Amino acid sequence: MTAIDAGRAHPNRRLSLGMAVMQYKSTVLAAVALAALIAYGAATIDGFWSLVNLRSNLVFASFLGMATIGQTLCALIGGLDISIPFVVGAANVGLVKLMNEGVPSVPGILVVLALAAAIGALSGFVSHRLRGQSLVVTLGVGNAVLGIVQILVSGSGNAGISGGTIEGQIPDWIQNFAVADKAIGVAPAVLLWAALAALIIFMLRQSWVGRSIYALGGNQSAAERVLLPNERLWILVFSLSAVMAAMTGVLLLGYTGSGYAGVGDPYLFTTIAAVLIGGTSLVGGRGGYGQSVLGVLILTVLQTILAGNDLSSAAQEAILGALIIPTIALYARSPHPRMQI
Amino acid sequence: MPSTEAVALRGINRQRSLATPAILFVVLLVIAAIRGPHLFTSDGLAGALIGASPLVLATLALTPIAIAGPAGVDLSIGPIMTLINITIVLGLTKIDLTGPVAVFACAIGLGVLLQAAMGTLIATLRISTVVVTLAVYLVVDGSNTVILPHSGGTAPAWLSNFGSASTIFSPILYVPLAAFVLWWLVSRTTFFRNIRLMGANDRTAFVSGISLIPTRIGAHVIAGVFVGIASVMYTGLIGSADPTAGAPYTLNAVTALVIGGASLGGGRAKGIGSVLGAIDIWLISYVLSTFNFGLNASYWTQFATGAVLVAALVAGAILASLSTTRPDDGKWLARWGK
Amino acid sequence: MRNVDLMAAPVPGVSTTPGIDAVVVRKVSKSFGEAHALRSCSFAARSGEVHAIVGENGSGKSTLAKLLAGVLHPDAGTIEVNGKRPTSPHAARAMGIAVVFQEILVAEGATVLDNLFVGDDGLFRARLSSRKKQVQAQELLTRLVGTPVDLDVPVNELPLNTRQWIVIARALLSHPRVIVFDESTAALDHSSAERFFDVMRQLRADGVCVLLVSHRIHELTTICDRATVLSDGVDVGTLTGTEITEVRLLELMRGESRPTAVGPSAREARAVGDKALAVSGLKLTPYAAPIDLTVSAGEIVGLAGLEGHGQVEFMQTITGFREPVAGEVTVTSRGIRHVIDSARAAERANMAYIPGDRKVEGIFPNLSVFENFGVALYRRTARAGVINRQRVKRMFSQQVQNLSIRMGHTDAPINSLSGGNQQKLVVGRALAAAPLVLALNDPTRGVDIGAKYDIYALLHSLATAGKVVLFLSNEIEEFLGLCDRVFVFRSQTVFRTLAASEITSDAVLAAMFGYTNLQGLGDAQH
After folding, report:
1. Does pTM top 0.90 for this prediction?
2. Is there a domain that residue B129 lies in?
């Protein structure tokens, strides 16, 4: 129907600037929005550029950013991970319990991450078999996991959980992770996030696994025909998502100083919001983690501005929600059915 | 001519999406009868009705949206129920309009208004349901806490009496019954069939002359009516206004919807399945409350609900692959779920 | 089966006199971005005639069908049907226009009955009672499909052939005055295609204006009263009656005439090499007769059969995508014997399967032209998981040249290519892995005539280079002059193997119906 008669191929010809802007419309928009927000924040809020504010913003962004890694990968492959807040909470209280039981911190963290990987693998496996149902699969898995972890944690006497909170001795090195290091200027958590972000972006662009994730998000059946390992990729993506969520839970433990099962709750919808605002489609196959980083930064700056204007966290939530629809309406509208006949 | 046996088998096959919630219902009922026979007294049933009806009605509200598909998951229902709850308890009391007619009219009107607005955004902007309802979740949930930072107020007396009814022959029975009758009537209309066809394949519906925008908005309007009724029952249950207690209804109703056999792909969901799914969720917490879990009861409920959801999904997929004999046309991967 | 009365009841509101222009298209233009689908296209079609719209892919035929359906609106010019303009599918339906689109548009989870009457009901009341719908639907479908169809079955549980009939029946049940068939026989097997001709004859007799869009030349020459040829969005001529011949149509379409097949001489020039593919005792279903055969390097083997008789399953089984009930498939590649028990094993044995429906299992709509090629090759060329884009680019350029794929930017979306070029890209993707055995599932479906000949020539050159080519097609004519042998499937097994000298349309058709000669064929259709 739409034959573009452009003669023989010019395989090395690059896209024109105009076409590139069209193709990366969402990224350009997100970058412009971020710049505008920073400019507005700098102009209206005292101490916006202060080191304290920047540092705390970055720490906050690194938590959200790490939890968003999984959500981005899941969105790219054509799924959604609702279990992120549950895994964040489960890892958070689970690690305290392990350390209270005498497990040293490093092996404790490794155990938590390994369990998270297994849980994610289960979500990925079942979600792949039940095509398109990852939202409800992860909802079920998340609830089951957080439920069972809280039961296990509350098992023994005074070291147990009460009202979702569990106290314990958090080692200094975990606590310092979220605090700006004098030598490097930023908190180690921020560096960890930067390293992971670089790794994930490289993986998505330059590895066959990353390219295959895009292919799967575009057309699962075609991916099967060119022998991409669909099931293993789903398992890998949801595993990574759960591991990143657990990592976020561990870092949050250092930040807050005590275990709390509900610590992940804000990450249910903010990870999705960051993915969407950055410009990754929930349908799959379009976007990337670079875009999500933009989304995370937009959310973080926005929250600073709103808080700077003395808005409560509830009001911030409402404004964030109100921004999603116009943003998505700018770039992520699905085509009219008439264009799909 | 096919034998009557074959016809009967086919009929059962057609209803297979109801198998999981129905079996679960019977199993839970049996356990409940053994462990907590109090449920089967007039008092117990009344408690069950008032406890379960907000979730049952909320799940029913999600059903037309799920049918309209694709990925028709309404995440906003919890905060919207809360908003209506606050409006009834604080707003209507303030203007002294607390009669049943005013309360139902206000609740249903608000529900329809919000749902119609979301339906309009989804249909005209062509943004996915998950995104729009997620945005509305955040807006309404945030606003609820801004409007009412802490729980308070008291529901109109007649409504609070719902919650303390000790016999089933009271409004707590009549309201859900009326809602079911309404559902039955609506689901038999040709308009509802159009929603179903649009959910199954919107392009087919479009080229066949079904106007997609009004049909999609219509699905949301139907949902809004049931959201309104659910909010009234919810207000009766808690007897006051609470800015946060309604939020969990979102994920609970989605869970009930899926246990009830709805396919989030669109086109396939049944009212009776949603009702059963919601009752199942209530029964799970009832049954667990008969054990001595003490402070852990809520954790056990969370675990059991999640596990049952995953089990129901897997069981549904296995049932579907067992009873479907697919002819070949590229969909020959007839292993479970595929 | 001949001359069945399709519309038993008299059709209300249809009082068209044969010979009057029912559809008038005046200087219609339609563009999609920079691509001009139609440029000032004009023609008229009368009621009571079968009027073909012919042209290569991208010539604007399907766009015309969508404009008539009210799905799209013209940028310039007018389309009038009995004096009115179709502004939406809803309006078009009210005007008595029915369009059967190229894609089989059904509501998957819904029942056959609901699918037949979708769009027929009013807002709150049905136009027809449920009982009347049942009766009308059962009567019509039984005639079309040949056997009764359960109206309460979800339509996705039915074979493709039946679904195609359901879509056609839906159009007929709306009692159209103008009906458009856009490639509506693509999914029909041969006996069904005959019944489809009967449908068109009956519609013509009833005074309906039938517009037929088709790539199947023999359909056009058999049934059409007139044929309008489009080229690059412009009407280049209308042929009447006996003028409609393959040569004339091709001349108009391309401004040149082409040979009708690669030619027997080309086939004889190929040397047959060593045995490469061996199938022994292969059972596709528990009660099917086992299949034993071998294919040698340098052979092109055609796979034919009525739909559902096992040819597609056979192709998927030998390429490891489907488990056989019994038996073994082996491939000897570079002196090593491989047992094919999975798709990965088939890949190791240098086998490639090229899927039929490119939209469903060929193309990644979100990826660029180049990435659509690359994703299949990144993994095998990756080092430590990191892709080698330069190497894949070289493979890409080579295949683009080899297959003469026409395209704009390599980074442009895949949808910027025409259907034929998309199909070539899917083939090129498989060829880049240098396979020994190629299994192509109907590679020319929905591809324009120019690209078809390119694909035939490609298969020939592959075989000449010592590859094994298995070629499944629903168009018997495609086997002629191209294949060394044709396996005709019936009842999930190879019913007959035709040697090169035996391959004729009649012989293949007869074998598909279970006869070894044509004498029986007449009986088979009754």
Report:
1. no
2. yes
